[in-house]
Design a protein that fits this description.
alpha/beta, elongated
């Protein structure tokens, strides 16, 4: 009921031309003309009231006529959009319409209703208004609704109308900056083998001889010098392998994390034989192109983050999942418990990467030496107080967490 009332109220505001200030001014003008002036015989207030009422009437008439003229011209135009747009980047479209400057007192504004997360700026170009749009959220859209608002320069009257176009718009997340320290570290893999696990390295370590050790491993020169019987043994396998399995968990405010995932995919940081899965997909992606398409489609399942992990894992060889990455939202939610259950059930060696668009604030140096030698890392406590709690919760479960600033590639 509340949503219906809100919808009707919004519709009434768009079709009723007079604004609140104009209604108050009109009431005062009529009060002066028909009440105060006849009683007081004031020849100054009377013409003032008439002029004010006349100005409101003229502005309202011009706004109505200008709106009808603009609507008639705009309905003939095409959607004017490219097939693909990247978030955060201003994109000029081919959608252009009359500026209404010949009406002298009219101004036009434009906004997108669907998709909603977009900033629209109008630029005056060769006598017409040209649209420049910046979209904030990824996704795939089949319909575009624009809202045109015509108002006078005095702020007395205003009318709005919506027009829709069919389109095939693909909005991709802006990638994080290349060269991030986090990306460089994970590109080589940092998943170390268990020190108590199987020894597979070169024969460079040694220990006391034990019954059953091969004689060929005995260090006879050491025995001749020290009379101690030692044998060679292989070192523990510490050489990391590349991490080539990654999951993207959709959720609120996850655009920067999607940008971090796109960096890993396009820069080849997950290896050539990658396996990638984003929420909402039906099968794992085996190439960067397929993975980016999954990122685009994951924008519509933000309310159901981490629900597709089990389905995806069933289609992946268990031997490939010894080490993996999780790209997650910076806002805690039900997705965290689902992801942790998934990780614990399989005993995965996982690292969590969280992308953010806030740059963070650097704490003040503790002394002159610190300020001269290096800058302390930026912190996000003041801008995202919930992120510290989320990070602490994940690290308490044994998952390393890296926070990446999308615009600079800086670790926060």
């Amino acid at each position: 009921m509340k949503q219906r009332l809100s919808r009707w109220w919004g519709f009434a505001r768009r079709i009723f031309p007079l604004r609140v200030g104009a209604l108050i001014l009109l009431a005062l003008a009529l009060l002066i003309v028909f009440v105060f002036s006849p009683k007081e015989g004031d020849f100054l207030l009377y013409p003032s009231g008439v002029v004010a009422a006349g100005l409101i009437g003229v502005c309202t008439l011009i706004v109505v006529l200008g709106t009808l003229s603009l609507r008639r011209q705009v309905r003939k135009l095409g959607v004017g959009l490219p097939e693909s747009i990247e978030t955060l980047a201003p994109n000029g479209t081919t959608f252009r319409f009359p500026s209404l400057r010949r009406w002298l007192v009219l101004d036009v504004t434009l906004e997108w209703i669907d998709p909603a997360h977009a900033e629209v700026r109008l630029e005056y170009l060769d006598g017409v208004l040209s649209e420049v749009v910046t979209i904030k959220e990824r996704g795939r859209f089949s319909n575009l609704t624009r809202r045109f608002t015509v108002k006078d320069v005095f702020g007395l009257a205003q009318l709005s109308f919506d027009l829709s176009w069919e389109c095939a718009l693909r909005v991709t997340p802006a990638a994080a900056k290349q060269g991030a320290t986090l990306a460089a570290g994970r590109s080589q893999g940092d998943a170390m083998a268990n020190p108590t696990g199987r020894t597979e390295g070169d024969m460079v370590e040694m220990r006391q001889y034990a019954h059953g050790d091969p004689v060929r491993h005995v260090l006879w020169k050491v025995y001749a010098r020290s009379r101690k019987l030692l044998v060679r043994m292989p070192e523990r396998a510490l050489a990391p392998g590349p991490v080539n399995v990654a999951f993207f968990v959709a959720g609120p405010e996850d655009e920067a994390s999607a940008g971090a995932a796109r960096l890993y995919l396009e820069a080849g940081l997950l290896g050539t034989d990658l396996i990638f899965s984003a929420d909402g997909s039906t099968s794992p992606a085996r190439s960067a192109g397929e993975a980016i398409e999954q990122l685009v489609d994951s924008g519509k399942v933000k309310a159901n983050g981490a629900e597709s992990l089990e389905t995806m894992a069933a289609q992946i060889d268990p031997s490939r999942m010894h080490s993996c990455l999780f790209f997650t939202p910076p806002v805690d939610g039900p997705w965290r418990e689902k992801m942790m259950s998934f990780v614990k059930a399989r005993g995965l060696d996982a690292t969590v990467i969280i992308g953010v668009d806030e740059a963070g604030e650097r704490p003040a140096p503790k002394g002159r030496l610190q300020s001269f030698l290096f800058q302390p890392p930026a912190e996000l406590d003041s801008q995202r107080p919930g992120l510290a709690k989320l990070r602490a919760s994940l690290e308490a479960e044994g998952l390393p967490v890296r926070v990446l600033h999308r615009a600079t590639g800086q670790l926060l």
